[in-house]
């Protein structure tokens, strides 16, 4: 089972690992695209106004540009420690046992605008690049990633649970992947799409999938696993699941 997570805009600072080694990352066949994007980001960081425009940043976020400038020389952290925010708080990898962390490292991966796919234990620096960014002199990130990343994801084998947000899933869709929509249900039975707490629910779901000793290999067995864990999960056929949570 492979669980694809979205990245976060926010990243933990620092890192005590060696500088970025692109060929050492998961799926080394993506190295050419990674190398091209990293080189453009580093060069772009020398032009602060152009970086702001390309990355959608304000002057108060110039520290993000400074991070990009040192992309190839900065210290690194494992991806699950680098990404921060609501989803990763709910995932809470720091509280996992050694055995659980080993399973998480095998099963979790992060979709990335810069790296395409990042394994949970891959060491990466802090950076700023979003799926919707438009880098000068390059085609869209979707145009760059789909032909390279698409075959990698399609060839993973086994069950893929795609929890990426829409813009990251669009970089390279995964045929047959299970997707999850989170709906909140009010006391009167009406439902609405969860927005604010969507990431928290998906983070808890990712934690469950990362740590279970079960190995579901299709959507029906996955649904059964989630229901045994006490989750209200609906499946109307196909590859989509609906996670229903009480309205806050």
TrEMBL record:
Segments of this protein annotated with the region Disordered: 1-21
One GO term of the biological process aspect:
response to hydroperoxide
One Pfam entry name: H2O2_YaaD
GO annotation, cellular component aspect: cytosol
Q: Which domain of life is it from?
A: Bacteria
State the InterPro entries in the record.
Answer: YaaA
The protein here is known as Peroxide stress protein YaaA
